[in-house]
Amino acid sequence: MYLGGNYRLKYSPDTPKPLMLKNNRWVLSEVIMETMGIPGIQKTFRDFYIQKGESILAERVEYFAPKVGVKPGAISIRELGYHWASCGKNAALNFHWKTMLAPMTVIDYIVVHELCHLHHRNHTDAFWNEVDKVLPNYRERKEWLRSNGAALDV
Ligand SMILES: [Zn+2]
Q: How far is ligand 1, taken at its centre, from the CA of residue 113, in Å?
């Protein structure tokens, strides 16, 4: 899965990159399968999501930060266990690489949710009010996470 889409996997003996999305198919280097097996494939996908996440999430954070009225710090994409995102010291934002499996509308909700935590580090009415100001239809997106979250296991 990638950005809400489901794609079939194809192995290729010669690819310029370890993993690419081409003509609605994942194209994975056969060498990775042969030399590293399943763990190698999992790592290749994780690296792909982290790399894409670094540019996509940075762009969405930059887009929404002025709307929320916050100045976020550094952004990092990594393994976050059971959390989609978290915020740390100096307004640093961390996102789980699995956010890249969700549709863009849901990614935007995760970004806005985390940016609003820079105003309120809790889930009080005041916090949800901030989310609602920027994404009035956030409830559907939140629902998507609730019903698809478990399926987002790679
Ligand atoms: Zn939260």
A: 6
Domain boundaries, the chain: 8-152
- The rounded Å distance from CA 129 to ligand 1 centre is 13
Cα(117) to centroid(ligand 1), Å:
7
CA 43 to ligand 1 centroid distance, Å: 28
SS3 per residue for the chain = CECCECCEEEEECCCCCCEEEECCEEEEEHHHHHHHHHHHHHHHHHHHHHHHHHHHHHHHHHHHHHHHCCCCCCEEEECCCCCCEEECHHHCEEEEHHHHHCCHHHHHHHHHHHHHCCCCCCCCHHHHHHHHHHCCCHHHHHHHHHHHHHHHCC
pTM for the predicted model, two decimal places? 0.91
pLDDT per residue as tens, the chain (154 positions): 899 999 999 999 988 899 999 999 999 999 998 999 999 999 999 999 999 999 999 999 999 999 999 999 999 999 988 889 999 899 999 999 999 999 999 999 999 999 999 999 999 999 999 999 999 999 999 988 888 876 554 3
CATH 3.30.2010.10 correct for 8-152: yes
